[in-house]
Amino acid sequence: PKFAEEVIKYLLDFKARRLKDEKEKEFQKKKGLGNSSLPGKLSDCSSKNAEESELYIVEGNSAGGSAKMGRDRHFQAILPLKGKILNVEKKDIEKILKNDEILSLIAALGAGVGQDFNVNKVRYQKVIIMTDADSDGSHIRVLLITFFFKLFRQLIEYGMLYIAQPPL
């Protein structure tokens, strides 16, 4: 009986994983993430060389405006996010891919998502999170780190994700 229970549990877990993978692929096809155009609020850099390019994820449009004025357009891209992004830790891929801010991040990175993510196709060698020095900024920073850990862990493992130190 115990062996049979373990086999049934294994099969149910396997089925759930397979369904999750199928949903993820279906949404990628539906949303066209593989061939997605760049998000409108992204101020891209002129360089197409990923090894020298940097993506700054900033909190809010006002910070985005300041960051755009102070950047080197050749290799620094700015992506302002409005508000707090979705907490992806407790969500399935279906809900994650319905969030506009997350779709903007995925499109800006340009390397797919989930199992189709290819770290070699990332458009930027450095992805820098820049948030305010307040509690909201800390919360947004944690949500972004969670997002990258869950969906783009290789960016962390390859040392491509950075956190800017906000001023006091």
UniProtKB/TrEMBL annotation:
GO terms for molecular function: ATP binding; DNA binding; DNA negative supercoiling activity. Residues 53-167 form the Toprim domain. Keywords: ATP-binding, DNA-binding, Isomerase, Nucleotide-binding, Topoisomerase. It is an enzyme of class 5 (isomerase). Its EC number is 5.6.2.2. One of its GO terms (biological process) is DNA topological change. Residues 34-46 have a biased composition (Polar residues). SMART domains: TOP2c (SM00433). It catalyses: ATP-dependent breakage, passage and rejoining of double-stranded DNA. Belongs to the type II topoisomerase GyrB family. This is DNA topoisomerase (ATP-hydrolyzing). It comes from Mycoplasmopsis synoviae (Mycoplasma synoviae). The gene is gyrB.
